[in-house]
Amino acid sequence: MFTLEELNQVKKRKHLINLADQKNIDIKKILQKLRYEEELRYLQGELVNLQQWIAKKKLRVAIIFEGRDAAGKGGSIKRFTEHLNPRSMRIVALSKPTEVEKGQWYFRRYIKELPNPGEIVFFDRSWYNRAVVEPVMGFCTNKQYKNFMVQVPEFEHMLYEDGIIVIKFWFSISKEEQKKRFDARLQNPLKVWKFSPVDMKGQQLWNKYTKYKEQMFSKTHTTFSPWVIVKTNSKKTARLESMRYVLSRFDYTGKSKAKTTLLPDPNVILRYYRYIEQIDI
Asked: In whole angstroms, what is the distance from residue 221 CA to residue 198 CA?
């Protein structure tokens, strides 16, 4: 890579390209990374403006991140929240229910985590665990699953009527890319903790996941609470475009002065419909 001294001597773009050629460095990758970092900085700045506006208007916003394991949900949430004020923002990633919670109404543990006035809550997985992961892995009974599928549209309609803004993302990843990311996790001592026995079964039970995912979409995609598909084979693109989608949903103060486009790429962000071309089929 370039040393700090070398970069300080670069005055023009062509000088950087020549230096890269001398060192056999792929300049395209470097320029892509620089563009990504710049876009990320602009969008994170807009998210700060959005958060201040939401706090002032006392809106309640819940953003749900769902998708297969290794689809990039956690990484995206990290970039969303990196510069937000922690006083009016929370990340919710619930562990498995306790014995007491197992005996309660399923939605109760999630109701406690819903946003307060002026707050944004990011759900790293949500009540939709019962729509896909739990039935696939045998963590719930068929009756529990069926009850959930009947109740969830009514539950979300109540949230809608009460003024809670819910954005539901499904991070879509191909089977090949998922395996690649699993392998990378196992080889990285800093990320190996992310890999669990459930992840191991993700590849084996791919088709079963697909079946339950499609049932979830068909029964819980509504006009008042639609599913938004994010193609995530490119992590960085998925992060930027999901940020743009959230920003595009609100007419906040100063939005017109943004230094980058706030309209998401329709090739990456798609509202669900039955015949949509997804990656994780």
From this structure: 26
